Amino acid sequence: MTQQSNVSAPMAVELEGITKRFPGVVANHDVRLSVRQGHVHAIVGENGAGKSTLMKILYGMQRPDEGEIRINGAAVTFRSPADAIAAGIGMVHQHFMLADNLTVLENIILGSEPRSGGAAIDLGRAREKIKRLSDAYGLGVESDMLVEDLGVGARQRVEILKVLYRGARILILDEPTAVLLPQEMDELFANLHRLACEGLTVIFISHKLDEVLSVSDAITVIRRGTTVANVRPKDVTARELAEHMIGSELPSPGARERSVTDTVSLSVRGLTVRSATGRPVVDGVSFDIRKGEVLGIAGVEGNGQTELVEAIMGMRDIEGEIRFGDHDISFWPTLRRRAAGIGYIPEDRHRHGLLLEAPLWENRILGHQTRRPNVKGPWIDRSGARSDTRRIVDTYDVRPADIDVEAAALSGGNQQKLIVGREMSGNPAFLIAAHPTRGVDIGAQAAIWDHLHAARANGLAVLLISADLDELIGLSDTLKVILRGRIVADLDPRTATPEQLGTAMTGAGQTP
After folding, report:
1. Is 30 exposed, middle or buried (0-12, 13-18, 19+ CB in 10 A)?
2. Is 112 in a helix, a strand, or coil?
3. 3 located within any domain
């Protein structure tokens, strides 16, 4: 928490009576938000509560139907993000918007290139400004590094520096810790503290209430599109904050009841996946997952998890062997693997999980187009798919509960709930769950955990990939760590700590 948590600081942001309607949905209704200069201000709420819409309005991506925005006391009207940037507002999105094949410097100045007469870009002036900002806020960014060579935490610092370079004095961060290790989260919080102490204002959205309580000066709770509470961290507990949000206690992955059998569901032997240049990105990986077992894989993003999952799903060429039950599926096409009973919750829901411009009931069919209730004989069963989509929407509390609305109209967390519901409804024998609760609120997180617990108790085998180390420890029966494409550690989830996992994930515990 910053040292400027006094009530005398002037208001940097004031939103009064903000209302935003979409067809069939009121995303925000009479929302009120006041953020003091030099404060770290958290916004929390369930998926679909209206947090992201509110921040898009503040950043000029959406225009409110009613209400007023005041920046540093002056009423403003934003018609685009360019207007918000000109007013000193910058936004760091949950999904980083960096070009991997460009340097840090090139990413930062893209669209704001300094000129030194004529059309020439003044790289020297840009490099000097980047260094000055990086040093001033302790961001530790090297201008000439390729972004593809940076870890997740470093990429996030580049995103922060990018908005600072454009003169932002008010920073909006959307789920800033979603993919960070514990050590990287501590570093981020230190950076936010430093920014606030220098007079900058930070607004951040998060579902992780312990983080909200540790780093923020003030918290606004939004429920079903309207403000329901404004509290100070010292006056509220995580449980009370959860009750403000959803009316229930803070969930936990819970105590595990061992349900692992002796029957192997999926066996991987000597699995190698190569990049386009021939470099092994998954290097000789072997493991078994038994019925009733959750095998958790921990690793910093970019160490082979994505390629491992895509290899098991038949989306990558491989060396080695993959067996599902009694079958060698090493060269089966993806659809055949799906039809055989492999469920798939992808890490990138937009790329591999949804058709954003299709209605929810059509998204229910994706990957399950050969199985009931989606088909009768060779034909799509529209009525069956629609009926089952209604059941998924009700069971998983997908909002809005309109099966004819496009998937793009749902918040990220509600999109995730739809995908989890679809995959669990297929009664898979084996499930790949890649970041199954990323971006969902605490109520939905608890529900997804309960569904996984119940399915596992009934014999489901699960490969769990997650950046949430507490989730990995809480759900897994077996824990492995992947680093540079290789399994480098096995840990007992009953005794492992997030810090031990983080150390293994970065290779800090390895001897040269």
Report:
1. middle
2. coil
3. no
Q: Which pTM value belongs to this model?
A: 0.68
Q: Tell me the pLDDT tens digit for each residue of 6-24.
A: 557 899 999 999 999 887 7
SS3 state at 476: coil
* 2 belongs to a structural domain: no
Rounded Cα distance, 292 and 457, in Å: 6
Cβ atoms of 68 and 74 within 8 Å: the answer is no
Distance CA 495, CA 43 (A): 33
- Strand, helix or coil for residue 446: helix
What pairs with residue 287 in β-bridges? 268
Domain assignment present for residue 449? The answer is yes
pLDDT digits (tens, 9 = 90+) for 416-432: 999 999 999 878 999 99
Strands (DSSP E) contained in 275-365 are: 280-290, 294-298, 319-324, 327-328, 342-345
Domain membership flag for residue 409: yes
Question: Is residue 164 helix, strand or coil?
Answer: helix
447 Cβ contact partners less than 8 Å away, ≥ 6 residues apart = 396, 397
Residue of 55, 34, 60, 57 whose CA lies nearest to 45 = 55
Residues 472 and 190: their CA atoms lie apart, in Å, by 25
Cross-strand bridge partners of residue 219? 42, 231
Residue 396 domain boundaries: 343-427
